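[AMINO ACID CHAIN]
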Amino acid sequence: MELIIGNTALAIGLIFGLAALGTGIGFGLLGGKFLEGAARQPEMAGMLQTRMFIIAGLLDAVAIIGVAMALLLMFGNPLLGQLG
């Protein structure tokens, strides 16, 4: 039982950390490419900004799904039900 709880805690930490790391890298690349595109063609900055916000929402949704799965493991661990 303790092994399952310990491994679950480790998995939760990895999920939270990798979700934050992936989102941070993604937003950094997205912002850099947006600024590069806006600097090259300033007349398209409005259209690029709209598309950037759409992609930012999708990028953030992936991290939120990962956090939701980690919270499921934290508060309603399905692996503990297999023991009883």
